[in-house]
Specification:
alpha/beta, eight-stranded mixed sheet, two-stranded antiparallel sheet, 10 strands, about 35% helix, globular
Length: about 350
C-alpha cells in the first residue's frame, strides 16, 4: 500500500517524466545477483525481467518521438497534387489519399503469441461467426510480421470455415512485407482506427495496440472501432465484437476487454498457470484502460487483491496441480465478483469478469 502511494505521488509530481512501466518486486530479481547475472539473462521470461524490457522499449520510443518531433518542426517542402489525365486530354488534380488514423506500434510480434486470445474468441464468438453470411475478422496492428493474422485465419476457420481475415497496419512497409503471405481469405491493407475493411467486421482484434496511447485516449478509440462493427440482426444475434488487450512477448500472460457495439462487456484474465506466482502478476498486462488504475480505491485493484487471497486460500489444492488450484480460487472469487464464465474456461487458465465490476471510477 505504501509503495503504491509513493508511486502515485511521484507520478502526480513529475507527470510524463516518469515511465509508464513499473518494475515489481520479484524473487528472480533478488536471486540473479547471487548467480552473477542481471535478471535479463538469469530468467528473461520472468515477471521481474519482462518489465525491464518494457522500460527499455519505452525509453527507446521516447527517443524516437523526440527525434520525430524535431524532424516535424523543420519546414517541409510543399507537396504538389498529382495530375491525372481526364477525358479529351484535360487534366484534373487528385487529392492525396486519406491518412490512416493512429500511429504505428512498436511492431513486436512472435508466432503463437496471441494463442490465448484466439482460443477464447473461437470458443465464445465462434457461434456468432457461423451465423454470419460472410464473416470478416480484422487483425488491427499485426506488427512487423503477419504471423498473428495468418494464425487468426486458421483458428477462426476451425469454428467458422467461411471466415475471412484482413490484416491492417499503418506502416506501408509492414503491409508490403505481408503481401507474400496473402491467400484465399487473407488480405493485408494499410490503415488505422478507421478500419478500411470491405465490410463491417464481425470481429476486430486489437492486441498490444493501445499501450503506447494515453489512458484518456482509449475511450475515443473504443468508440471509433465499435462503430465499425457489424450490427446484430433483428433478433439481437450476430453482432460484431472488439477484443482489445495486452500480452507479454511470448503470450504467457494476457488480459483483454471484449466490447460490442454498445460498449465494453467483459474483462478476461488468461495465463499459463505453470508460470504464475500469484494472480496479481497479471497486473503488468492490464490493458491501457485499467493498467494505471491498479491502485487502492479502484475496483481492479480490489479484484486482484481478492484474487490473491483466494489463490492463497487454495494453496492446499496445489498438490493436485496449478490448474486445480486456479479453479478453486476462481470458484471462491465468484462468490463476491461477477464471474461470467465457468469451469470449461477456468481449466484453460482463464477467468472472465463483467466490465462494470472493474470499470475505472470517475
Amino acid at each position: 500500500r505504501l509503495a503504491s502511494q509513493v508511486a502515485e505521488e511521484v507520478r502526480s509530481h513529475f507527470g510524463k517524466e516518469v515511465l509508464r512501466t513499473s518494475i515489481p518486486r520479484s524473487v528472480r530479481i533478488s536471486e540473479a545477483p547471487s548467480y552473477g547475472q542481471p535478471v535479463l539473462t538469469y530468467d528473461p521470461g520472468s515477471s521481474g525481467a519482462l518489465p525491464y524490457f518494457e522500460a527499455a522499449r519505452e525509453i527507446a520510443m521516447r527517443g524516437v518521438v523526440i527525434h520525430s518531433e524535431a524532424h516535424q518542426n523543420q519546414p517541409a517542402a510543399p507537396r504538389r497534387p498529382r495530375p491525372r489525365r481526364g477525358r479529351r486530354g484535360h487534366t484534373r488534380t487528385m487529392p492525396p489519399p486519406p491518412r490512416p488514423v493512429g500511429t504505428a506500434t512498436r511492431g513486436t510480434t512472435n508466432p503463437n503469441r496471441l494463442r490465448r486470445m484466439d482460443r477464447w474468441i473461437t470458443a465464445t464468438h465462434g457461434a456468432a461467426l457461423r451465423r454470419a453470411d460472410h464473416p470478416l475478422a480484422v487483425d488491427l496492428g499485426y506488427g512487423h510480421a503477419p504471423w498473428t493474422a495468418v494464425e487468426l485465419l486458421a483458428r477462426l476457420r476451425t469454428a467458422a470455415p467461411g471466415t475471412r481475415v484482413t490484416g491492417i497496419e499503418i506502416d506501408p512497409d509492414r503491409v508490403a512485407a505481408a503481401q507474400p503471405h496473402a491467400r484465399e481469405g487473407l488480405t493485408f491493407v494499410r490503415g488505422g482506427f478507421e478500419v478500411p475493411a470491405p465490410d463491417r467486421p464481425h470481429l476486430i482484434r486489437a492486441a498490444n495496440v493501445l499501450r503506447q496511447y494515453d489512458e484518456d485516449e482509449v475511450r475515443a478509440v473504443w468508440e471509433r472501432l465499435t462503430a465499425r462493427l457489424a450490427r446484430p440482426d433483428p433478433d439481437g444475434l450476430g453482432g460484431g465484437l472488439l477484443v482489445e488487450g495486452t500480452c507479454d512477448e511470448i503470450g504467457r500472460r494476457h488480459v483483454w476487454v471484449a466490447l460490442g457495439p454498445e460498449g465494453p462487456r467483459t474483462v478476461t484474465f488468461a495465463t499459463r498457470l505453470g508460470s504464475l506466482d500469484r494472480p496479481s502478476d497479471l497486473a503488468e498486462r492490464l490493458p491501457k484502460a485499467l493498467i494505471h488504475r491498479n491502485v487502492p480505491g479502484e475496483p481492479v485493484h480490489a479484484f486482484l487483491r481478492d484474487f490473491d487471497r483466494a489463490w492463497a486460500a487454495a494453496a492446499p489444492y496445489a498438490s493436485y496441480g496449478a490448474r486445480q488450484r486456479w479453479q478453486r480460487a476462481v470458484r471462491e472469487l465468484a462468490a463476491d465478483w461477477p464471474v461470467v464464465d465457468g469451469p470449461a474456461r477456468w481449466r484453460q487458465g482463464e477467468v472472465t469478469v463483467a466490465w462494470g465490476a472493474l470499470a475505472p471510477r470517475g
